[in-house]
Write a structure and sequence with these properties.
Distance between the termini: 48 Å
Radius of gyration: 25 Å
Structural class: mainly alpha
Number of strands: 5
Strand content: under 5%
Largest sheet: 3 strands, antiparallel
Strand order of the largest sheet: 1-2-5
Number of helices: 23
Length: 526
């Protein structure tokens, strides 16, 4: 699979290009199918964001300068916090998400009274972290604030001399770091689309609107089909709940601010739920990037259940509000024991892939990549038999688990999937490997892709507690905004999907604050 995914507005113009843009058309025709699907993501953003992207794309010099400033600023920020332990790094990085708080802390006298007054307008969990700061942390905060102010000043000198429309576009995208970082990374195609925007503005905007409607309809259909496949299947629901617990072991960082947004209660007879306030707008700043310990871009922290697209905290059937995102499905499929333990759920994922393979949503894209990585033993026929699908997947999971264990015991005699299946053909007779006599070039380990799952957070501002709503209105998520989180993939790193990556180790070189006692979140029903 081509790792160079083109992640945005080129999708607007893949259908046709005017006679004055034949060179652009030739370039667009060379995109791979997976590239075409991944770049559809941004087409579902609101119109004002799509337009902002095109405005900035029409000025490649601005993008180059902003990218350079961001790269320097991010490196400087990571160098500053590298002197502190992991707990302090997490606290400081988290505080960067809340506008103005670092500046206020840097200017404070560090007294308990002033800090308590300062945190009045922030979530309780922010207050817990602030009150746990110690003197060395305030020295770090002052350095971070100095870096932040200098970086923002340097950036403003670049775009504030431009016309008001471009200034507004840059400001809008600074609040959408997942988008701005992408267009800064894809300068060649930014120039291509920017030229089309300059020469064929009305046509391009019209194509964008049309594609937005088509993709929104496809996304809605895929979500409804996923809901229907899980809603009345208790076994699939139980396996989903079990999987989310395992996922939490690999990705334990759960943004406590979102614990406020959960289902308080569920009444199966009248199908109502109660909800509490939510916080959606806190993202890591573009200039500092997202924390290095995430193995995929995570500009906005989410609770674990959001990654999976359903509320686990209910009595009765689970409530699905969205498709599991790409990273989640990719994680699930690249742990072979999942197919052995949860073969029923695996078959649900594959069924969805078979039905929506032309759509390219999160499930479809992840399963397609898994299938491609295992093409030497996973054939279309192997997945097509619905009656045997669960048992076939269970067999594959068992085979891979046993092969991994064999290779760990016998590193000098390790076997590929094809070799292992051929050796134990009687046991795994449903799996038909491609013949090794064809001299298929097969690597023992397929590099694990690092997911550039640019999670698009819905725009709604902080909301007040709401009255009970019907189940279908449990959480109104603008699919046109949320779709982006499933689509874009980062260039792969040389990891094996069979080995869980160890968390990064940070060697403290300076004493930092002691970890603050975590405050219990009070859950309030509406």
């Amino acid at each position: 699979m081509n790792a160079h995914y083109i992640p945005w507005v080129v999708a607007f113009v893949v259908f046709s290009v005017s006679s004055s843009a034949q060179n652009e058309k030739l370039l667009l025709e060379n995109l791979t199918e997976s590239e075409r699907k991944s770049i559809e993501a941004i087409a579902l953003y609101p119109e004002e964001i799509r337009t902002a992207v095109l405005e900035v794309a029409s000025r490649p010099a601005i993008m180059i300068k902003l990218k350079r400033i961001q790269e320097e600023s991010r490196q400087s920020f990571e160098d500053l916090i590298a002197e502190y332990d992991r707990h302090t790094q997490e606290v400081i990085w988290d505080l960067t998400r809340f506008e103005g708080i670092l500046q206020s802390l840097a200017a404070s006298d560090m007294s308990k009274q002033s800090l308590e007054k300062l945190i009045t307008n922030y979530p309780d969990e922010v207050g817990v972290k602030v009150m746990g700061l110690r003197e060395p942390d305030f020295r770090l905060i002052r350095q971070v604030v100095h870096l932040q102010l200098q970086t923002e000043s340097d950036a403003r000198k670049i775009y504030e001399v431009e016309n008001p429309v471009l200034q507004k576009a840059v400001q809008q995208l600074l609040d959408q770091p997942e988008v701005l970082s992408i267009i800064c990374d894809e300068l060649e195609l930014a120039i291509l689309v920017g030229n089309l925007y300059i020469t064929n503005r009305n046509w391009l905007l019209k194509k964008a609107d049309s594609l937005n409607l088509v993709l929104a309809a496809e996304n809605s259909k895929a979500l409804e089909d996923w809901k229907a496949s899980i809603a009345n299947d208790p076994e699939a629901q139980e396996e989903l709940k079990a999987s989310i617990k395992e996922y939490n072991e690999d990705y334990p960082f759960d943004d406590v601010y979102y614990d406020r947004d959960y289902v308080e209660d569920y009444d199966a007879d009248i199908q109502i739920v109660e909800r509490v306030s939510v916080y959606y707008h806190h993202h890591y700043p573009f200039w500092f990037g997202y924390p290095y310990w995430y193995d995929y871009p995570r500009w906005r922290p989410f609770p674990i259940w959001y990654d999976w697209g359903f509320y686990p905290y209910v009595r009765g059937p689970i409530i699905i509000f969205g498709l599991p995102r790409y990273h989640t499905v990719w994680w699930y499929f690249n742990r072979p024991y999942h197919h052995y333990r949860y073969s029923h759920l695996s078959s649900k994922f594959v069924d969805h892939y078979q039905t929506h393979r032309e759509f390219g949503g999160s499930i479809t894209s992840a399963v397609s990549q898994w299938k491609d990585q295992n093409r030497e033993v996973i054939s279309d026929e192997f997945l097509a038999n619905r009656k045997q699908l669960a048992s076939n997947l269970k067999m594959f999971g068992e085979m891979e688990e046993n092969r991994i264990k064999y290779n760990q015991r016998n590193p000098e005699k390790s076997m590929t999937k094809t070799q292992y299946v051929e050796k134990y053909q009687r046991k795994y007779k449903a799996i038909e490997p491609k013949s090794t006599s064809r001299k298929i070039m097969e690597k023992e380990e397929v590099p694990t892709p690092v997911i550039k799952d640019m999670q698009r957070v819905p725009f709604p501002p902080k909301t007040e507690a709401r009255t009970p709503e019907k189940q279908d209105q449990t959480r109104v998520i603008d699919q046109a905004k949320d779709y982006h989180r499933n689509k874009v993939i980062k260039k792969p790193e040389t990891k094996s999907p069979e080995v869980r990556p160890a968390p990064p180790k940070v060697s403290p070189r300076k004493k930092a604050a002691e970890p603050a006692q975590k405050k219990q979140v009070q859950r309030k029903s509406s």
